[in-house]
Amino acid sequence: MHLKKTKILLGIIISGICLLNGCTSKSERSAREAVIQDLEKLQSSDSETIQNTIDTQQLLSSSQYTEETAEELGDIYSLFYKDFSFKVKKVIVDDDKGTGKAVTSLSTIDARSLAKDYVLSLLQKQVELEADPEEVKFSLNDSCILLKELLEENDYGTETSETEISLKKDGDSWQVIHTSDLDSLLTGDFASYMSDSRFLSPSEIVDAHFKTIKSFDSQQLTTYLSLDQLVSTDDSYNHSLAEAIGEQIQRSFDYEITGEDQKDNQGDVQVSITSPDFESILSSYKQQLTQWLKTSESLSQGAQGRREKERDLLLSCIDDNKNTISKDITIYLYNDGINWKIQMDSDIAEAVFGDIPSAIDSISQDIE
Q: Residue 271 belongs to what H/E stretch?
């Protein structure tokens, strides 16, 4: 009797365990273990293990792969999955068909935030290259380095999603089927964000451009705005004039995005741009020149001396100027299926320059 009661008690306990945890077959346990072993590879400190588990081109797809790029990618994946975690919630198998699925919760990096920072950084680099006299094409390896730096410098947190992971039976064991959808999900859909032509808004594109220009030093501004081509003077003076204008723009340039409109593939961004008041500079220059020409010194200088004085006066007026002017403009963009592109026009150039070309033209006989 005692033995019988014991068996009944054990049966009740086992039934309770099944109710709480679910009784799984050997095949289900094997399938669950296959999923766990596969996903644990993404938590490995060995980058090669990670790259052998998932399609590495889900992050940066290109035909420019080199040994150096592969090494950078390895570091990227180790950083990309440093906070990766998962939980296999339920496993269902069909032994007769040799198929199965595992309902799994995935915690992956916040790839949307990472992708946005990455795209904006790429755009910034593109603008910076336009201000580089020795412009070099941005390579895939440069892209890898940039992405790696973002992952090292920022904590992007994680996003949680749930998916069904497909399995197939191979002999007595189970294997995870790595579909493109699963690999994309395991990267937080990073590649999907990167390929979305409307991922950034028109105003974000404009903001990235102007923010980069605002960070330029005078030399970068000189190259980016081609300031050394404003006048046809000797190299020494032309360089001094370009540098003075560049420094003036650097001190004065500012902007504020005030609105945005989108319709189909067209985008309009309203911007208020602050730049040096070159009309004020020109007015000050003409006033000082007029006063100087009335002095005895101007008569004794001769033609060459007067030209040098005129040049010095202009440089001085540019250096001393503190007046700015603000102008409201609309920047037009179009979407080419890859990204929003700014349509550069004279209004943008004039707003940034402060109409310096017209000012220089009006006194060109004095300084040339």
A: strand 266-276
